[in-house]
Structure formats: structure tokens, C-alpha cells
Specification:
By secondary structure, the chain is mostly helical. 63% of the residues lie in helices and 3% in strands.
Length: 254
Amino acid sequence: MTRLVALYPRTWRDRYEDEFLALLSERPPDPLDRIDIVRGAIDARLNPQVCPRLSPKPLEPLPYNGPWSIRRAGILTLIGGLIWLATMGIAVNGPIVRDGLHAYRDVGAAMATFLLSVALLLVGLWAVAATVPSTSRVARTAALIAGLAGMLWAFAPWMVVFGAVMCLGLAILAIEASRTGRWRRSDAAILVAGIAAAVAVAAAAVAGIKPPVSEPDVQFVALLMLAPLWFATAHALLRPAIPVAEPARDPSTA
């Protein structure tokens, strides 16, 4: 643990090291905690004038009226990401079908997992939308449109335009969540970078740049680049920058 603490600047360690080490000894950090510690060290070095205290006044949990708890939505989104990776594996191993001069892979075996993975991403999308401020009308509208487009894309994967609209809406939502402090900037950046990488692969294929894979598999490389949508969203829900309250429950149903 002292190696992690050593990442912080000297002024920070002189003031907080003993308390920080005591806190770590009481609750040993898991891998996600270690990542957060490294992020905090980078932030402390980039913004030395803002020196966060280890025991600040607890933040008031954000109001949340979603149908699932934030953690449950994050877990479901994470599972969706793993299913997405499995879907790409199934699709890229499908048999090649030749139609005249063109060849394509038969991805019928991956349709069910494709639908399930996109559906689980929409669970995360709706959970994020439930945490953004009510004044963020553009982000909430983008989330609604992205949800509708995502449902259509889940049932019709060949309609790429629906997938593009879903990705754009989720990017707008992530940027707004980052701007309002709901998400860490790194999570939003990873999500947007994944979309940008998928667009770059698709654009290169359209431009005639020969990729290091066979022609029928280029689309799956582009789709694989979208995996950060699931994992960045899941991380933002499981490790929110601001605590989120549990869903409000109707006492009459308790």
C-alpha cells in the first residue's frame, strides 16, 4: 500500500498519509479501489491547489427513481458487456455464405445473445438517465431516443442506423453525466473513445483501406470496438462519482 501512497505528491502525504494508511488497513482495497487510488494521485498532482480531505463531509446521495438499484443496473450492464464479447466471438466463427461475388458470415447463432447484450446495455442507459439533473433536458431526450433506437437495433442488427443513433445518444448522456459530476471524466472518455474507434474502423473500410482481417469480418471488428459502452457504463454505475440513493419505494407495496 505504501507504493500506492507514494504516487501522491509530498505535500499531500505530509498531511494525509498516516490517516490514509490507517483507512486502508481497516478496509483493504479491491482492484477497483486501487484504480481509484491511482486516479486520485494523478488528480492530486494535476491539481495541487485542490487537496481533498480524507474525511470530508459526506455527500448527499443523489435522488434516484429508477426501477433498479444503481449497483444492480451496473452488474447487469457488466454482464451485458461480457455477453457482447461472446456474441462477437460467436459471430466471427459463423460459416461464410457466398452470394454471387459477395461473401458474408451467417450470424444466426449470435442473434439471441446480440439482443440480450443490447437489452442489458439499455438497463444501464436508463439507470444513468435517472441520475442526471432534471434540467438536463437534452441528455434526457438523447437517452429516450437512444433507448428506442437500441430496442429496434436489438431486434434488427442489420439496421446500422439504429445502432448509430443509440451510440450517439449514449455519448451525449455520458458527457452530460461527466459535466454534472455524476460520472468520472475517464469513464465518459473511454465510452466516447470506443465509439470513435468503431467509426474509424468503419470509415477505413468504406475508404477502401484494407484491414488485417478478412472482408466479411470488418463489421465485427467495428462492433467489438463498442465494448467500452458496456464496461464504462457499468463502472460508472458500480463506482459512481457521487453516491446514489436507493430507488424510492411505495410504502403501500412494502
